[in-house]
Amino acid sequence: MKTPAFALALLLAGTAWAQNPPTAAPNTQMEARKAEHMQDLATLLDLSDSQKAQVQSILEAQHAKMKTEMQQARAQAKAAGNQPDREQMKAQFQQHQQETLQRLGAVLSAQQLAKFRILQKMRHGHHDHAGHWRHPPPPTDG
């Protein structure tokens, strides 16, 4: 069965939640969105109830860890009168992604993990680090 591109986009937005929850939404809306995204992920990866709970726990823990580290990096840079080092923050983000995949590898089957990686790759190909849609590059005249 092929998954429609729209469903994948929804899932990608769901996996983005782990890195970038919407801050402007009231808490109840954010919780509802979070639950919906987790259900989408559970559906697309065919997660059992046990796996769903474990995956949600892993994603929440990794999100909290990354958020704390990014806030610390920003505070340190601000105290020094600088902007955060983009390359350092990018490296931290990539490290967190690898940690998340390692932790998920203990919960997901090889096929589920492969699907998760594809969804993650698709998300990062179409979003910037803040989860915003990137505009495609302009066509080249050539």
- Structural class assignment: mainly alpha
What is the general shape? Answer: globular
Helical content stands at 55-70%
Instruction: Give the low-confidence spans.
Output: 8-12, 131-136
| Radius of gyration computed on alpha carbons | 16 Å
- Counting DSSP H or I runs of 4 or more residues, the number of helices is 5
What's the N-to-C terminus distance?
A: 39 Å
What is the overall pLDDT average?
Answer: 77
Instruction: Give a short account of the largest sheet.
Output: none
Number of strands: 0
Describe the structure.
- Mean pLDDT is about 75; it is low at about 10 and about 130-135.
- Helices cover about 70% and strands about 0% of the residues.
- The protein is globular, with a radius of gyration of 16 Å.
- It has helices spanning about 5-15, 25-45, 50-80, 85-105, 110-125.
- It is an all-alpha fold.
- The protein has a domain at about 65-130.
- It is built from five helices and no strands.
- Helix 1 (about 5-15) crosses helix 2, helix 1 packs across helix 5 (about 110-125) and helix 3 packs antiparallel against helix 4 (about 85-105).
- The termini are far apart.
Keywords:
single chain, 142 residues, mainly alpha, 5 helices, globular
What is this entry, summarized?
With 142 residues, the chain is mostly helical.
Please describe the topology of this protein.
Layout: H1 5-16, H2 27-45, H3 49-79, H4 86-105, H5 110-126
Helix pairs in contact: 1-2, 1-5, 3-4
